[in-house]
């Protein structure tokens, strides 16, 4: 130790102990609820925000999701509620239904030792009847999305005249989702004497302006984080061809010791497809996305929490606000193209100090996304290998051993079956070990216990990828054979050169609307009045139905299979040459 190190060590030794919740000024009933829940030490945002709000001052808090900000504003509000007042005393605005429900659950836990405190979630997709009945009976805290709160205000069914506390949770997300006008309308409808807390992960100009207009001398509390992802999450990625993703996911499910898992897909259709294929493989899986009714969404999340469901397959929007303690793994089946979505997705695990695992599937063309994520989060993703057949078989044998060990503890049943085996041995003169093997076959059913080592899937052929002749837009490919061994079919769309369409527009529109990957596209030929696009020959009917309504440059593309004969190519070549000749003539004329 150097001389300059000594004072630092001395200072560290005399640093005060971290504050407890009892040090923050909370009342005994709230502290009792926290002890029952198991909370011991407040997070940084809680330690700074709770005393400030208890003092009555407005707050602007900057903190990422997962830092404990819900407790930071909910605990002081619960601490000061008046159970005798039946009109709403606190209103929390949240950007999504899921987050609103999560905040409601938190309020109910924190008010567990207060008699007669009622919390009501208010959001679209739920019938008005339940909400109206609760409001008539009297509620103390309302947690809702801006749209449904506005509906109640316009109907005169929500009385905010005696409101004391207003919270804007994830204010930047509300603005991104187009709720700015609704939020300002709600703020204007509430008493000027209310206390306001605004929480946001970022502080854009619109949030800054809103805080100056509607908050009175707020305390600004910022919780800086060294990284945007939790250090308790192990982050890995698997390089795989897109057509091998389901096989890769199945292998990972075999060898990973997971409790609950969220698998993220890019589109609604892919979440349904993944969930269906997982169920066919014997896993308890369900999808949630924008097409799922709210009642079904809530039932699915409840099943995940209770352990009746192990795998949730979700889109980004559907999973926002989910906080399920048993989520040990997050799998990005489709890696997101922006780092914010990545951070949000993997933040569904490793919360509140728990450990978690995040695995992302990355196609060869998506390698750059890994670098972008590492740069933004300042954390390295570790490349992993596809679990081998031997690893899967080892895991299966281990689990089979565990099942046998568990069965051996049931001595009464073992004794009865021992007699049955002995009876078979006496009458058929077969060794006991052979009988045991036969019984294992009977118990196993049609599915073999071990994988065939010869069934190891071949790695994607790099030579095939290297033969791809792609332009800068990544859209063209020579040949009619796909990299996964399948075939392309040629489709005709009703946009061409005179509509000033470019290959990147075609790829972008079809990929977004149809849920296609870039590797789904073969050659793209743009003709004067139409274009020819090579797409997978076995495209699902649902994909074609979605593509039927696609527009490019404002025109309906009217996609259909191209039935042109061999002359189509030569005719197109002549069109291309004529266009090039016309451009040269025009160019010489300008010279």
TrEMBL record:
Stretches assigned to the Helicase C-terminal domain: 248-393
Region (Disordered): 450-487, 558-591
Residue span(s) of domain DEAD-box RNA helicase Q: 19-47
GO terms of molecular function: helicase activity
Main location: cytoplasm
Domain Helicase ATP-binding: 50-221
Basic and acidic residues bias: start-end ranges: 456-485, 568-582
Domain of life: Bacteria
Motif window: Q motif: 19-47
Enzyme class at the top of the EC tree: hydrolase
Keywords for the protein's UniProt record, in alphabetical order: ATP-binding, Cytoplasm, Helicase, Hydrolase, Nucleotide-binding, RNA-binding, Stress response
CDD domains referenced in this protein's UniProt entry, alphabetically: DEADc, RRM_EcCsdA_like, SF2_C_DEAD
Localization, UniProt: Cytoplasm
E.C. code: 3.6.4.13
InterPro entries: CsdA_RRM, DbpA/CsdA_RNA-bd_dom, DEAD/DEAH_box_helicase_dom, DEAD/DEAH_RhlB, DEAD_box_RNA_helicases, DeaD_dimer, DEAD_helicase_DeaD, Helicase_ATP-bd
Reactions catalysed: ATP + H2O = ADP + phosphate + H(+)
Family matches, as SUPFAM superfamilies: P-loop containing nucleoside triphosphate hydrolases
Key word Signal present: no
Family the entry assigns: Belongs to the DEAD box helicase family. DeaD/CsdA subfamily.
HAMAP family assigned to the protein according to its UniProt record, in alphabetical order: DEAD_helicase_DeaD
Function: DEAD-box RNA helicase involved in various cellular processes at low temperature, including ribosome biogenesis, mRNA degradation and translation initiation.
Name of the molecule in the record: ATP-dependent RNA helicase DeaD
Organism the protein comes from: Microbacterium aquimaris
Name of the coding gene: deaD
């Amino acid at each position: 130790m150097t001389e300059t190190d000594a004072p630092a060590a001395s200072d560290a030794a005399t640093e005060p102990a971290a504050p407890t919740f009892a040090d923050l000024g909370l009342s005994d009933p709230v502290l009792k609820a926290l002890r029952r829940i198991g909370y011991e030490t407040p997070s940084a945002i809680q330690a700074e925000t709770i005393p400030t709000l208890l003092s009555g001052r407005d707050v602007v808090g900057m903190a990422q999701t997962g830092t404990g900000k819900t407790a930071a504003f909910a605990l002081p509000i619960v601490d000061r509620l008046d159970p005798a007042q039946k009109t709403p005393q606190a209103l929390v605005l949240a950007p999504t239904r899921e987050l609103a429900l999560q905040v409601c659950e938190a309020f109910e836990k924190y008010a567990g030792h207060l008699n007669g405190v009622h919390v009501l979630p208010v959001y679209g997709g739920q019938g008005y009847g339940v909400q109206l009945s609760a409001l008539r009976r009297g509620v103390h805290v309302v947690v809702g999305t801006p749209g449904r709160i506005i509906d109640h205000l316009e109907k005169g069914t929500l009385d905010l005249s005696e409101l004391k506390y207003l919270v804007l949770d994830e204010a930047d997300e509300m603005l991104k989702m187009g709720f700015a006008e609704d939020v300002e309308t709600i703020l204007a409808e509430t008493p000027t004497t209310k206390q306001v807390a605004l929480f946001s992960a970022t502080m854009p100009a619109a949030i800054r302006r809103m805080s100056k207009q509607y908050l009175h001398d707020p305390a600004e509390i910022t919780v800086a984080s060294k990284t945007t992802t939790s250090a308790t999450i192990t982050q890995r990625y698997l390089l795989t061809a897109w057509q091998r993703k389901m096989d890769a996911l199945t292998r990972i499910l075999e060898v990973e010791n997971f409790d609950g898992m969220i698998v993220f897909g890019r589109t609604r259709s892919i979440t349904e497809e993944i969930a269906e294929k997982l169920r066919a493989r014997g896993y308890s899986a369900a999808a949630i996305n924008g097409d799922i009714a709210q009642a079904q969404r809530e039932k699915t999340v409840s099943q995940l929490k209770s352990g009746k469901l192990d795998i949730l397959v979700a889109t980004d929007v559907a999973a926002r606000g989910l906080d399920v303690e048993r989520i040990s793994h997050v799998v990005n089946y489709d890696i997101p193209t922006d780092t914010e979505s990545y951070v949000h997705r993997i933040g569904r695990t490793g919360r509140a100090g728990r450990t978690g695992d995040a695995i992302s599937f990355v196609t060869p063309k998506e390698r750059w996304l890994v670098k972008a994520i590492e740069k933004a989060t300042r954390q390295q993703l570790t490349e992993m290998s596809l679990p081998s057949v031997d690893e899967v078989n080892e895991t299966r044998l281990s689990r089979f051993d565990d099942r046998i060990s568990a069965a051996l503890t049931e001595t009464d049943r073992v004794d009865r079956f021992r007699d049955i085996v002995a009876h078979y041995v006496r009458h058929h003169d077969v060794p006991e070990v052979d009988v045991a093997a036969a019984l294992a076959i009977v118990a196993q059913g049609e599915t073999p216990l071990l994988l065939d080592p010869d069934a190891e899937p071949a790695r994607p052929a790099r030579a095939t990828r290297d033969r791809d002749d792609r332009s800068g837009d990544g859209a063209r490919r020579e040949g009619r054979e796909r990299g996964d061994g399948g075939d392309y079919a040629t489709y005709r769309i009703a946009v061409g050169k005179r509509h000033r369409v470019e290959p990147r527009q075609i790829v972008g529109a079809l990929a977004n609307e149809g849920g296609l990957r870039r590797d789904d596209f073969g050659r793209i030929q743009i003709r004067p009045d139409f274009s020819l696009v090579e797409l997978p020959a076995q495209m699902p009917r649902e994909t074609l139905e979605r593509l039927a309504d696609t527009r490019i440059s404002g025109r309906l593309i009217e996609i259909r299979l191209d039935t042109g004969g061999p002359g189509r190519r030569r005719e197109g070549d002549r069109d291309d040459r004529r266009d090039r000749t016309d451009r040269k003539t025009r160019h010489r004329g300008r010279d």
